[in-house]
Design a protein that fits this description.
heterodimer; A: mainly alpha; Cyclin A, domain 1; 5 helices; 0% strand; B: alpha+beta; SH3 type barrels; five-stranded antiparallel β-sheet; 3 helices; 5 strands; elongated
Chain lengths: 103, 115
């Protein structure tokens, strides 16, 4: 798929500046996202290639703005829906519920 | 299948390796001059777009792996060799690139032909 993920050779994105002493996780929720990979991989019955493809299918503008683990989260959501483990409505309802609880 | 604590150390240490323990004949040998196919599917591929049609030299054979293009879509592992292939910067990026730079890219059997 010739998508937004295939950035090799693209101009204008600026230099690659790795953080000095970069932590493994930047946010607490990223630890959960990391753990979800193993959990959903074993449970969901998908391949790592399918996981990568799900990330490639993200909306291009969102892809560029989103962080590494946000890409993972998008893949988990898509794969669990594609494989029939959850529905889009269940996901949307849960997000709406969590938003309500956080106010 | 559910993730249990005993599975976790292995999964974290090895990731989800795509290596396949199967004997498959390689289509290329180290030193072969190859041309990357104009391979541009709308489905999953691990071929970077900038390599389409480019000429390179096989530098190392990594062994046999599941082919991502089929494996991503439930079409089987189609096990095949993956190689480190050397390209000159000029070949990939044109005459404005440095004539001293080269790049090495991991490329699957199915993406290339002998040049």
């Amino acid at each position: 798929m010739h998508g937004i993920h295939d950035l090799g050779g693209m101009h204008g994105l600026g230099p690659i500046n790795p953080e000095k002493d970069e932590p493994v996780f930047h946010e607490d929720w990223e630890k959960r996202a990391f753990a979800l990979f193993a959990g959903t991989f074993v449970f969901g019955g998908y391949t790592v290639d399918e996981f990568r493809h799900e990330i490639e299918k993200m909306d291009p503008a969102h892809y560029l703005e989103a962080t590494y683990y946000e890409h993972w989260l998008a893949a988990f959501e898509g794969l669990l829906i594609n494989h029939g483990h959850i529905t889009r409505k269940e996901l949307d309802d849960r997000i709406a519920q969590l938003k309500k609880e956080s106010h | 299948m559910l993730l249990t604590p005993d599975l976790v150390p292995t999964i974290v240490a090895t990731g989800a390796s795509a290596r396949v323990n199967e004997h498959v004949a390689p289509r290329f040998r180290v030193g072969d001059r190859v041309r990357v196919r104009n391979h541009n599917p709308t489905t999953h591929t691990r071929l970077p777009g900038y390599l389409r049609g480019k000429i390179g030299i096989i530098e190392q054979d990594y062994g046999v792996f599941a082919f991502p293009d089929t494996h991503a879509h439930g079409l089987g592992e189609k096990p095949q060799h993956c190689y480190s292939v050397r390209f000159t910067a000029r070949e990939v990026w044109g005459s404005l690139a440095s004539d001293r730079d080269t790049l090495r890219v991991d490329v699957f059997d199915d993406y290339m032909d002998l040049d």
